[in-house]
Amino acid sequence: MQARQLEVFCMLMRCGTVTGAAAMLNISQPALSQILLHAEDQLGFKLFDRVRGRLVPTQEANELYPEAERIFAELGALRRRTIDMRHGRTGLVRLAASAPPSMSIVPKALTAFREAHPDIVVRSLVAPIANILDMLRSGDVLLGVAMNDMPHHDIDVETVGHAELVCLLPERHRLAEQDELGFADLAEETLISYRVDTLPGRLLAGALEAEGGIYAPAVEIDLSITALPFVREGIGVAVVDGLLPWSQFSGIVQRPFRPSIRVPIAILTSKERPLSGSHALMRDCLRRAAHALEPGGS
């Protein structure tokens, strides 16, 4: 299957219609249909059946699609890389971080990196851990920063720091008078916190179970920043990572949470793609920035 045929196949699987796929690829519908016919001729089997005006993937298409999508993503990464090279951005550093590190560790690392290497372009993306892993595997980025140090067979995971969980309260909340808060203090409050299938959620569930309770947030979140408007509106109190600069946001107060629960901060790299010199330098800056956030760090 040729690259253009692969592109058409993947877009048809995503969109489900010739009209939608053609619009996404910016080609005419007849041209797209012709490319699909040629692909099916070369493969020797059909990829789609027409059912009531829609394209329905065949069993063969469904079996091919996961691998085709992976190759399609790698082709996209290669295309972007060649564009960067054409524009002279061969020193480009590409990294992706989840939201809390992107608002705390990455800015400090970028400041240090730019002071030493002002001519190197940095492309910084914000993404959840699943997307960061996908981008590392496709080569879209070479560095990832996430609050998760779970092992992966094809990813090097280096734990470089930890973030303590904290409690966020609306201004003038009755609990704001206390120096620190625990599960017992929040028993009568509407709890805003992580889903139990996230790493922070599992850590919280284990800590509360040790106290004889059951972890069941009334409002579940994936990213700590999403708790901010809920707390401001007085919906409840939140237990989230302390990595974000919460003191910069109005309408809330932050208090230490006890027992102390620490979430790992990790730098992720692909085992299949060695780092360039500029990426290795950025990794060093990320390490130092993460270490500076630790108690006693500098």
From TrEMBL:
PROSITE patterns: HTH_LYSR
Keyword DNA-binding (UniProt): yes
GO BP of this protein: positive regulation of gene expression
Keywords annotated in UniProt: DNA-binding, Transcription, Transcription regulation
Matching InterPro entries: LysR_HTH_N (IPR000847), LysR_subst-bd (IPR005119), WH-like_DNA-bd_sf (IPR036388), WH_DNA-bd_sf (IPR036390)
UniProt key word Nucleotide-binding: no
The HTH lysR-type domain, residue ranges: 1-58
Protein name per the record: LysR family transcriptional regulator
Record organism: Azospirillum lipoferum
Taxonomic lineage from the root: Bacteria, Pseudomonadati, Pseudomonadota, Alphaproteobacteria, Rhodospirillales
